[in-house]
């Protein structure tokens, strides 16, 4: 990126800037005429200067121009104008003045819109350039950079720069020419008034910028302090577990409080300087009209200046301070954004980046990685200069299965990271097939080498999206869309240096993977997950997922069929009492009162939590079913019981979770409601209190909470109200916020497991959950639905950083993500640390078989784990030695190893 912001702006917006320049220049004559007209209105129309010597009419709107002396001089008249009286001249000139005001306003509108569009396009380009540069950070840079600070730079710190970009060249030209035009007009009317205005302007341009330099320095300090505050808050959030484990909340609050005080002090000082500058600027702007009135009036009284000229001068000066003030503001903003820009590019210096020619994927370098893997005089040291790997050279054949054995030191993992180009601070040379590892293009290395480290990086999204992340290298086929929106998007992308690639394009090369389509890819993913023991996890994720009858009609039909088969199999095994089915004509004791009333799953806030209690359709059904008072009374009884149980319990007690009606911090509010009930009765409660009690009642489940609040009369009344509710819901604005249960179709909003059960597992029966789920699995297998359920499981959302997955599941996803792209070289560095010893051994054996004809490098704890590997690099502290594995049993391996130029040693 350019070190000069102005050079960066001009390089990418020269054509647009010149177009706006042309509009600015075209606006100047109209602006000058708008300054001239008030003088003519006063002198010619009001004072009658055009009607001297007894004339009763004057010509208006003459269109003519003077020829220069070189062309013989004279005047060419294009339109002789209209003959008007004094009143007509007044209205004509006034109308012309209004027209010029509108024209000048239109020019300003066009210029400002063009500036805004230019600024937004350049801001988009700048943000994308910074993001693209972030992707080029070297591994050593990534170890020191704070992600929150980088995000703050790209999102927030460039915002004021983007606002300035549109003004960078246009604003000084526009404002400068306006101010110069007004100043020239004043000088033409009276030299002394012009010089007076110029003197005041000169004082403004000298004093104000000097005062604002202090403001700029403070602004720079504020920007750095804000960035550090954001970085520190991100560190605390990332380490929140340690904060709570060690009770460091008070310490962290004190530190953030200190930082906020420092930031407040800087901002307050900036405010004081800002308003001091504003005061002086306004003072100078107001002194000048005083001088104009005094001196100009004096000159008018002396006959040295006519009234029209004085009015025109005052009108022209009225237009002079705003552009001058904005010019001074522009100069301050220029200095401010240049400082910001300088600070930003300090975070993206070339020495922090992978060279551009290495980063940009070259089509000609898209071949596989092959050839011997070698290191010449490799030396690695830690940041303090202590050796991690002493001078070490080796050459390994391709393919090879290499184990790097450590003694607990950092050497093995660091060497593995060097081979994966995830560690770039080393001396010596590492090559693959004779090519320097550091010069292999990012694209080729990313497609043909995989690295699985101990800390997998997962992204928010589905399990599937994380698994295929390494397959989306470049679009295979672009979406053919020639609609106006697509054309506009493509045009804007090209104008702002953004990619024209779209997420809707086809990014995955199914042919290379040996599958036909996305469905075949899902099968490939499931097979890989099965080999690392994760398929059962994906099956469970699938049961928690949702099936759309619109997008997956075939699966939806099979789910309804499986539902019937499950019911019969439960009956065959005598387990029908473990699941109470949803029946439109019966009350389901295992569901809450609210769920029984709605008989469906909410897809919006209108039918969840307290929104359900205030929903007009729900209240209408309860009123018509004569249930409102009964349920409010149940809510009051629940409140009474809960306050008695929880009164002396600390927040977080398990009973709060079991009953889950009232949060600990809400207890005092409900105690107040009980006091009002005791004093005046339920009927006297206001609508808000009644809604809160109703919300408690709607969450009540008799078998779970066991308060004995439901009888058969109420159950029948709730089922009857269900019919009223459904009738009222049909055609209402709330209909789309509830997905109703239907025995003959799936409920799109309900989990797949609930759709299969179409009921609720009974509370309080020992082992009911596991017994029912075994029958569910049997039905799924019998009907051949397991793979379909697993494919639903691939849509499971993993959460930020994969936090909704267990550690071994995150490791498994990372492993499969590496394997599914079929790399030529796979480096395993702590990628199995989350697994138990036996499962890790099983996965390692599978990897050895998979990479029989490719390169596989694994960091292992000891030589006992190295069975099946072809070669070993064994560390003793920082010293490394290359050995051939005695366990290597592949035919011809010894001959290959002997023929290869294998050299291991220390400096």
Write the layout of secondary structure elements.
Layout: H1 5-46, E1 58-60, E2 63-66, E3 75-79, E4 82-84, H2 86-134, H3 139-144, H4 147-157, H5 159-165, H6 170-189, H7 191-238, H8 240-245, H9 249-301, H10 307-318, H11 321-346, H12 356-359, E5 373-381, E6 387-396, E7 401-405, H13 411-419, E8 427-432, E9 435-436, H14 442-448, E10 449-452, H15 463-467, H16 484-495, H17 510-513, H18 518-531, H19 535-544, H20 553-572, E11 579-581, H21 593-598, E12 600-602, H22 609-614, H23 616-624, H24 628-646, H25 654-659, H26 667-680, H27 687-698, H28 702-705, H29 712-729, E13 738-740, H30 752-757, E14 759-761, H31 768-782, H32 786-793, H33 807-820, E15 825-828, H34 837-850, E16 855-860, E17 871-876, E18 879-884, H35 893-899, E19 905-906
Parallel strand pairs: 7-16, 7-17, 10-15, 15-16
Antiparallel strand pairs: 1-4, 2-3, 5-6, 5-8, 6-19, 8-9, 11-14, 12-13, 17-18
List keywords for this structure.
35 helices; alpha+beta; Rossmann fold; 907 residues; five-stranded antiparallel sheet; ABC transporter transmembrane region fold; disordered C terminus; six-stranded mixed sheet
